[in-house]
Design brief:
Number of helices: 14
Order of helices and strands: HHHHHEEEEHHHHHHHHH
Shape: globular
Largest sheet: 2 strands, antiparallel
Oligomer: single chain
Distance between the termini: 50 Å
Number of strands: 4
Structural class: mainly alpha
Length: about 375
């Protein structure tokens, strides 16, 4: 009897869905346990946020709120992933390396801004160099001949065909893919750099980036689960990626960590994630998109992050163009990133956050529907 019970328990633990649920709950518990401790420690050592004087007046009261709370998120992601996922899996190794490296870069950036009083933190070219090196490392881990990462297409006759790792999937086309060969490395670097910076730019209101990351990761988690199963990938006409289901466990760890962090980060925030959180979460989204061959679909999945980044680019370009033409630069938006524009237009901070979340959910659902229109 005892043997049967043990055997049944071992079988249950083998299920990815069970381990993913365990990871999410563990991440949530860790967040609740270590959150207050880390917030008190940050307060004690005066790791307080410095607010820009040219920002919305409502943000001035946030001066001194503890930053670097992304440490809570990172610990709540890494520990459950190690506990519940197969840490010998190349997908898990790659994603953990990615968030750890960007977390370290973000930590240095935050430390220099807060404790060393460097207004811009880590010099931009050093941060960019770190993102480029991470992109190169991720591409090596994917393209390495000894890697267990492989990508496959299932034909109508159920024949499995291996495709090159330098291929990208094409949305709206059944089993669509295109081999971009030597452009693959620059693409990985671009995606990881852009995604990490996009989340960083979006992290300007209480709970905004945290909620949007959870929404995007939920979609990528569903894709990871489906891609790792030959029956689901065949039904959805998407690339079959053996062993990618382990990423579903990582994704639920992220969601659990984000929900736990949101307990402290919701308006009015008791702690901000800082660059240590935003850069690592952005790198997680970018790396997941690359590993799951959803590089193009990421534009829809992380649509709000894309819009926020574009608003900054438009603002800078418009200012430079008008300054060159008239001698005085003008602003296209009242303030960039876009969430500040709506704040200055009279929207309450909570309204901006919730409405952006709603847009994020709509885009997430839209991205999932692309699988059944191909």
């Amino acid at each position: 009897m005892i043997y049967l019970l043990l055997n049944k328990s071992l079988n249950i633990v083998q299920y990815i869905s069970f381990r993913a649920t365990g990871a999410a709950i563990t991440a949530l518990i860790i967040s609740f346990l270590i959150g207050p401790i880390i917030i008190r420690t940050l307060n004690f050592h005066h790791f307080g946020e410095k607010i820009r004087k040219n920002g919305p007046d409502s943000h001035l009261r946030k001066e001194g709120t503890p930053s670097m709370g992304g440490i809570i998120i990172l610990l709540s992601i890494i520990l459950p992933t190690i506990l519940w996922a197969d840490i010998s899996n190349n997908f898990i190794i790659t994603i953990l390396i990615s968030i750890s490296i960007m977390g370290l870069i973000g930590f240095i950036d935050d430390y220099m801004k807060i404790k060393k009083n460097y207004t811009k933190g880590l010099i931009a070219r050093y941060k960019l160099a770190g993102q480029i090196l991470l992109g190169i490392l991720v591409s090596y881990l994917i393209l390495n001949d000894n890697s267990s990462i492989s990508y496959n297409i299932i034909s109508e006759s159920n024949v499995l065909t291996n495709i090159n790792s330098t291929s990208i999937s094409l949305p709206f086309i059944a089993n669509g893919y295109f081999d971009i060969k030597y452009l693959y490395l620059p693409l990985i670097i671009l995606i990881i750099t852009a995604s990490s910076n996009a989340v960083n730019l979006t992290d300007g209101l209480d709970g905004l980036a945290t909620g949007l990351v959870a929404i995007s990761i939920l979609v990528l988690g569903a894709i990871a689960y489906a891609s790792g199963r030959i029956d689901y990938s065949n039904y959805l006409n998407i690339i079959f990626i053996p062993n990618s289901g382990e990423l579903f466990i990582f994704c639920l760890s992220v969601i659990g960590a984000c929900i736990g962090f949101l307990w402290f980060n919701a308006y009015p925030a008791k702690v901000f994630m800082g660059d240590v959180g935003s850069l690592s979460l952005g790198a997680a989204i970018g790396t997941l998109a690359v590993l799951l061959k959803k590089e193009i679909l990421l534009i829809i999945i992380g649509g709000v992050f894309v819009i926020e980044s574009l608003s900054v680019i438009i603002q800078v370009l418009y200012f430079k163009i008008t300054k060159k033409k008239t001698g005085k630069g003008k602003r296209f938006f009242k303030m960039a990133p876009l969430h500040h524009h709506f704040e200055l237009s009279g929207w309450n901070e909570n309204h901006v956050v919730v409405r952006f979340w709603i847009i994020g959910i709509i885009l997430a659902l839209l991205s999932l529907t692309t699988f059944k229109v191909q």
